[in-house]
Amino acid sequence: MFCSRIPLTTDHCMFTGEKIAILLEQLGVTHVVTVPDSTIGRWQSAIEERGATRVVRVCREGEAWQVAAGLHLGGATPLVLIQCTGLLESGDAIRNALHDFGLPLFAIIGYRSYLNQDTLPGDTCLAFTEPTLDAWKIDYRLIADPSQFDEIGAHWTACRDAHVPGAILLAEGKA
Amino acid sequence: MTAPTTTQTAHTARMSAKDALAVVHAARGPRDIVITTMTPSRDWMLLPQHPLDLVLVPSAMGSAPSMGLGLALAQPNRRVIVCNGDGSMLMNLGSLVSIMNARATNLVIIVFVNGTYEVTGSQPVPGAGVVDYAALARAAGFESVHAYASDEAWRSDVRRVIDATGPTFVALAVEPIHGQPGPKSPGPARERARKFAEALRR
Questions:
Q1: Could you tell me the CATH superfamily of domain A17-122+131-171?
Q2: Which chain A residue shows the shortest CA-CA distance from B190?
Q3: Which CATH architecture has domain B17-201?
């Protein structure tokens, strides 16, 4: 289902890289395994500059879950950072890591076109992203406004304490 | 860094997959992690098992090198050996680039090149008999690259190969085994994952 959106006139990035980098450090994230998009990709340099969290660049998003699975089994605390298109690409990796091996991996997923469809009117990401998260039984929170920043850490902590997979779905502007 | 070898490029000579895997089994150290998948996992399970064996059955096909990368980064003081198939390698070629980019010096990727999807009935993989996996690894940036078609040569070199500063890539030309069943899960995956993670903490 296509939901109504708050139209924005410019590309939109709710949180600075520095703010995210500090949060990841506070949460104890050791590795960010990522394929960038135009929103979340802007965070990479800030994360690397702080030095507390290693950025692991992979070639496709399914790989990100698999690398994160290895990191988790090895005692690290990874975060998967991808766009929703990459979530759609990731199905079998999610099935295996989260449901066969039962690993409680966590992701921040950029939600393309949620705030602005100027570039891609009728972007089908809006039709399939949330049903896909539901299908994979990933407990997610939609962050669509900067005032929700604290919900990112709160949901991470809740999922960690419950040992379940989780995700933040981060509303993005133009593709 | 060891000099690349070019023992095998065309698949004219091959060794027994089980013999090649037995060489890995004999060479692995007590602290080494060994990940197996697809046909190598079936044959690995016939050998004595170790708490740091991770049998990826069930798997997301192609995932073993990526899982190995994660483990290598999380456990930099252990060697991680991944025994992969050629069909699985083809499914995740980008992982070679990711491994290089992450500078996972403790990671060894061994590809058992039999030219077939053996577990599904030995259909040919794309590029069977043509693709040079060692060359693919070199092109991805691997410097420690090796290829073997005889178990004598592989057995003779294995210690030097896996002890080299990695990431290391090994292509082993092996005979396909027709008519054998695919690997069976050795037990509930969640329980195995829990025990494996525990063994790593010891």
A1: Thiamin diphosphate (ThDP)-binding fold, Pyr/PP domains (3.40.50.970)
A2: A101
A3: 3-Layer(aba) Sandwich (3.40)
What's the whole-model pTM score? 0.93
Q: What is the mean pLDDT of residues B31-38?
A: 96
Domain boundary assignment for chain A: 17-122+131-171
Asked if residue B3 has pLDDT above 50, the reply is no
CA distance B121 to B177: 10
CA dihedral (A77, B144, B44, A63) positive or negative: positive
A interface residues, B as partner, C-beta within 8 Å: 30-31, 33, 54, 56-60, 62-63, 66-76, 78, 92-93, 95-97, 100-103
Domain locations in chain B? 17-201
B94/A60 touch (CB, cutoff 8 Å), yes or no: yes
The two three-digit tokens of residue A39, written as one number: 């929103």
Do the beta carbons of residue A39 and residue A172 sit within 8 Å?
yes
Number of H helices, E strands in chain B: 8, 8
**A79 contact residues in B (CB cutoff 8 A):** none
pLDDT at residue A174, rounded to an integer: 73
DSSP annotation of B9 reads S
Residues of chain A under the 50 pLDDT cut: 1-10
d(CA B171, CA B115): 12
- Give the pLDDT confidence of B167-201 residue by residue, as tens digits: 999 999 999 988 888 899 999 999 999 999 999 99
Q: Any residues with CB less than 8 A from the CB of B171 and at least 6 apart, and which?
A: B8, B111, B113, B133, B134, B137, B146, B147, B148
Q: Which residue has the tokens 């990671």?
A: B107
